[in-house]
Write a structure and sequence with these properties.
heterodimer, A: alpha+beta, Phosphorylase Kinase, domain 1, Transferase(Phosphotransferase), domain 1, two-stranded antiparallel sheet, 44% helix, B: alpha/beta, Nucleotidyltransferase, domain 5, 2 domains
Chain lengths: 250, 467
C-alpha cells in the first residue's frame, strides 16, 4: 500500500486520526473513532472513511469526473437504500464528493483470513452449514434492490460484507460506486451476469452450487412478482449467450 | 524430402526473390487535411525518426536481415521489467509438476515448431526446452521467430479470404526460413504445434492444413494450442512473472485473466468488440495506414494530442464495453472531416473553427480506453490479492498503456511485466512454447482431432503443466 496516498488522505482529514485497514481497487478504507459533526458518546465506536484517491494513470480531467460521479452516486444510493425493507447497507454520515471522501457506518469485523467479506468467508472452508442460507439471503437482497430500480453495477463476493447478528451471519451490500438507477431488464440481467462471472472466477470449485443458491434466493426475493423475475431471467439467458458466443479473433 | 509431392514448394521463388515481388499496399497519399498530414508522412520506414527506430527491430518480412539468433541475452533484453518488488516474489517459475515423464531416453532437449495464423499475421517459431522444470536458470531457448503480416490499404480491414490466401502463399517459405534460422533439422523436432483457435476461420484453416501436411511428411505428432494460452505462457516465460494477473489485449481479445486451479480464469472481458478492433476501426475511419499496424499509427498521433475530449466511459463491474465509444468518436471524426460546424464539441460556435484535431481524438480515445483497461486490471488485482501484472497481446506494445499500467502498479507497490513487439504481437514461438508444454505433459492429438475452431475460450484449457 502506498504511503503517499495515505498522506494525501490525511491531508484532507486534518486533525482526524485514521488508520488504514485495506486498499481496494479504487479506494482506501480507513477506520476512525471520530464522528465528523457529533460528540461520540460510545467509547470504541468506529466509523469507516472511504477515500477514492486520484489515479495517476488517468487523465486529470477524466479522473476528477469519475471520482466525483462515483462518490456522489454511492452517497445517493446509500441514502435511498438505508432502512429499505430487507436490504442492509452501511448508513452514510458525511460526503465530500470533490475529494472523493465518504464517511460511513462501520460494517463487519475481523475473521481468520481478514475482514469478514463474503469472499473471505467462503474461502475459509470447503463447505459450511450456513453457506447455503447466506447465499440465498444475498440473492434475496439483490432481488429487492432490483425491484427498487437500483442496479449495483459491481456485484462480487468482496462487495458483500458479513455482520454478526447474534450467532448468525447476515449479509450487507457495500461499494455502490458503479451503481445507478434503472428499471431496465437489461441492466438487472447484466448485474446478475457480472455476479455469476465473479463467482465463477473467485470460487471455481463450488461455483455451480453457489450460483444456484443465489438464483433461488433471487427468485424468492421477487415474492409475488414472479412475472418480473421471469423477464429478468429471460434476458439473463440472452446476456450469458452474448458473452460466450462472442467471436474472438486475433 | 518428397518434393515431388509438393510441386508448389519447388517452383516457389526464394524468400528474397519473393520479397522483391511481394505486393505492398500502394504508397500512401494523405486524404486528410491539416496537421494529420505532417504526422502521417513521417510514418515511412526509411525515416530515421527515433520513434521509428525501435520498429526496425521487429521481425517482419521486409527486413529479415535483422532476424538474429535469439540467445539468452537477447531474450532477457526483450523484457521491459519494471520490477518494484523487493521481496523477490518474482524469482522465477517454480513448478512442482513433473514435465519429463514422457522424455525420450538419451535426449536432453525438446524442440518444437509452432505455426500461428489466427489473424493477419503468419508466424513460425522454433523453441527448445531442456529437461527439468523451466526456471530463471533453465529457460526456454528461442531458436527462430519469423513473421509476415498481411497489410491492407488505408481504410480497409483484412478479409478472411484474402488473409487465408496470404497465409497459404507464405507458409512454406516462412517454415523454410525458420528452420534455416534455427539451424535445426527435422529429425531434431519433437512435435509440430499449431493454433487451434480462437481466430478467423479461413486463416486458421490454411495454417492447420500446412501443419497437417508437415506432420505427415515428417511423421511428427501435432499439438493444437489455444492462442490466448500461447500468449500467456510466452509472456510468463520471457518475463519470469510468477503468478501475475494477465491483461490480454489484442485485435480480437480483451480479457483480464488470473490463474487458479489449473485454469486461466477470465475475470473481466469486453462485452462487445475488442480493444484492438476498436482502434483498428477508428484508424479506418481516419484512413491512416495499416502499416506497420493501425494501433501503432494511432499511438504516434496520440502523442501529439493534448486536448482531452470527454468520451463515454463504460466499465460494467469487471467487464467493459467499447462499441459505444467507437460509434461516438467515429461520429466526431466524420463531423470534423465534413466540416459539420453544428457540432459543438469540435467547432467553436462563435468562430466556426475546429478546436479539436485528429491527434486530440486519438489522444482522448487512448486515454479513455486504456483507463478502462487499467481500472478492470486493478479490480482483478484487488480481488485475487496479487501485485503482479503481465500485459500480453498486440495492444500490449503500446507504450502509453504500459506507462499507465506502471503508474497504477506503483501505487500498489507491485510489478509490471511486458514484452516487446517480437513476443507481444502474434508469433509462432508462443504457439511452439505452449504446445511443447502440453507435449511434455503427454498430450497427443489424433489426426482427426487436429481441427481448428473460431471459438475457443481461454478457460476451456486444462493447464496441466502448472500446479
Amino acid at each position: 500500500m502506498s504511503d503517499h496516498l495515505v498522506e494525501l488522505a490525511k491531508s484532507h482529514l486534518t486533525n482526524i486520526p485514521v488508520s488504514l485497514i485495506s486498499q481496494g481497487a479504487e479506494s482506501l478504507i480507513f477506520t476512525t473513532t471520530t464522528h465528523p459533526y457529533m460528540e461520540t458518546s460510545d467509547e470504541g465506536q468506529q466509523y469507516i472513511v472511504k477515500f477514492r484517491p486520484p489515479k495517476k494513470y488517468r487523465h486529470p480531467q477524466l479522473d476528477a469526473q469519475l471520482t466525483k460521479r462515483r462518490t456522489l452516486a454511492e452517497a445517493r444510493l446509500l441514502q435511498r437504500l438505508y432502512g429499505a425493507d430487507g436490504i442492509s447497507v452501511p448508513s452514510i454520515i458525511a460526503v465530500d464528493a470533490r475529494n472523493g471522501i465518504l464517511w460511513l457506518e462501520y460494517i463487519g469485523q475481523q475473521i481468520e483470513n481478514g475482514v469478514s467479506s463474503l469472499k473471505n468467508y467462503l474461502w475459509l472452508e470447503d463447505s459450511k452449514a450456513d453457506y447455503e442460507s447466506l447465499l440465498r439471503a444475498v440473492g434475496d437482497m439483490i432481488a429487492r434492490l432490483h425491484q427498487m430500480g437500483i442496479v449495483h453495477g459491481d456485484l462480487t463476493t468482496s462487495n458483500v460484507m458479513l455482520q454478526k447478528h447474534g450467532s448468525q451471519w447476515a449479509p450487507c451490500l457495500i461499494d455502490f460506486g458503479l451503481g445507478f438507477t434503472s428499471d431496465l431488464v437489461e441492466d438487472k440481467a447484466v448485474d446478475l451476469y457480472v455476479l455469476e462471472r465473479a463467482i465463477l472466477s473467485t470460487h471455481p470449485v463450488h461455483s455451480d452450487n453457489y450460483n444456484s443458491w443465489l438464483m433461488e434466493g433471487y427468485k424468492k426475493g421477487y415474492g409475488k412478482d414472479q412475472g418480473k423475475f421471469k423477464q429478468v431471467m429471460k434476458r439473463y439467458e440472452d446476456v450469458r449467450m452474448r458473452g460466450r458466443k462472442r467471436s474472438m479473433l486475433g | 524430402m518428397s518434393s515431388t509431392r509438393h510441386q508448389d514448394t519447388k517452383e516457389l521463388p526464394s524468400y528474397e526473390e519473393a520479397l522483391q515481388e511481394h505486393e505492398r499496399p500502394p504508397p500512401y497519399t494523405p486524404p486528410l487535411t491539416g496537421s494529420i498530414m505532417a504526422s502521417i508522412t513521417r510514418l515511412s520506414r526509411d525515416d530515421p525518426d527515433p520513434i521509428y527506430e525501435d520498429l526496425n527491430n521487429v521481425v517482419d518480412s521486409t527486413d529479415f536481415a535483422d532476424v538474429d539468433h535469439y540467445n539468452y541475452d537477447v531474450l532477457s533484453n526483450a523484457v521491459r521489467d519494471v520490477s518494484l518488488d523487493t521481496d523477490g516474489s518474482s524469482k522465477g517459475i517454480v513448478t512442482m509438476v513433473n514435465l519429463d515423464q514422457y522424455a525420450k531416453p538419451g535426449k536432453h532437449t525438446y524442440t518444437a515448431i509452432g505455426l500461428e495464423g489466427s489473424a493477419n499475421k503468419l508466424g513460425v517459431g522454433i523453441i527448445r526446452h531442456n529437461l527439468g522444470p523451466l526456471s530463471q536458470e533453465n529457460r526456454a531457448q528461442v531458436l527462430s521467430n519469423v513473421r509476415d503480416t498481411y497489410i491492407t490499404p488505408p481504410g480497409e480491414g483484412f478479409l478472411p479470404r484474402d488473409t487465408a490466401r496470404h497465409h497459404r502463399n507464405w507458409v512454406v517459405r516462412l517454415i523454410k526460413r525458420s528452420m534455416e534460422e534455427a539451424g535445426v533439422s527435422r529429425e531434431e523436432l519433437d512435435c509440430i504445434c499449431f493454433t487451434k483457435g480462437p481466430g478467423m476461420g479461413a486463416p486458421l484453416q490454411s495454417v492447420v492444413i500446412a501443419a497437417r501436411a508437415l506432420s505427415q511428411l515428417w511423421d511428427l505428432p501435432l499439438i493444437g494450442v489455444n492462442h490466448c494460452i500461447g500468449h500467456i505462457e510466452m509472456g510468463r516465460e520471457i518475463t519470469g512473472a510468477d503468478n501475475p494477473v494477465v491483461l490480454y489485449v489484442s485485435g480480437g481479445n480483451t480479457q483480464v485473466i488470473a490463474y487458479s486451479n489449473q485454469r486461466y480464469r477470465i475475470f473481466g472481458e469486453t462485452l462487445d468488440i475488442a480493444i484492438g478492433n476498436c482502434l483498428d476501426r477508428f484508424a479506418r475511419t481516419l484512413k491512416i495506414p495499416n502499416y506497420p499496424s493501425p494501433g501503432y499509427n494511432i499511438e504516434q498521433l496520440a502523442k501529439k494530442g493534448s486536448n482531452y475530449i470527454e468520451l463515454p466511459y463504460t466499465v460494467k463491474g469487471m467487464d467493459l464495453s467499447m462499441s459505444g465509444i467507437l460509434a461516438y468518436i467515429d461520429q466526431l471524426a466524420n463531423d470534423l472531416f465534413k466540416g459539420n460546424t453544428s457540432n459543438k464539441v469540435i467547432f467553436n460556435q462563435e468562430t466556426k473553427e475546429a478546436q479539436i484535431t485528429v491527434e486530440d481524438l486519438c489522444f482522448s480515445l487512448q486515454e479513455t480506453l486504456f483507463a478502462m483497461l487499467v481500472e478492470i486490471t486493478e479490480r482483478a488485482m484487488a480481488h485475487v490479492n496479487t501485485n503482479q501484472v503481465l500485459i500480453v497481446g498486440g495492444v500490449g506494445c503500446n507504450e502509453r498503456l504500459q506507462k499507465m499500467m506502471e503508474d497504477m502498479v506503483l501505487d500498489r507497490k507491485g510489478s509490471i511485466y511486458a514484452t516487446d513487439e517480437r513476443f507481444c504481437i502474434d508469433n509462432g514461438i508462443m504457439i511452439a512454447h505452449a504446445g511443447l508444454l502440453e507435449f511434455r505433459m503427454g498430450k497427443r492429438f489424433e489426426l482427426k482431432d487436429t481441427v481448428c475452431t473460431q471459438k475457443f475460450r481461454t478457460d476451456e484449457v486444462l493447464v496441466s503443466w502448472r500446479d
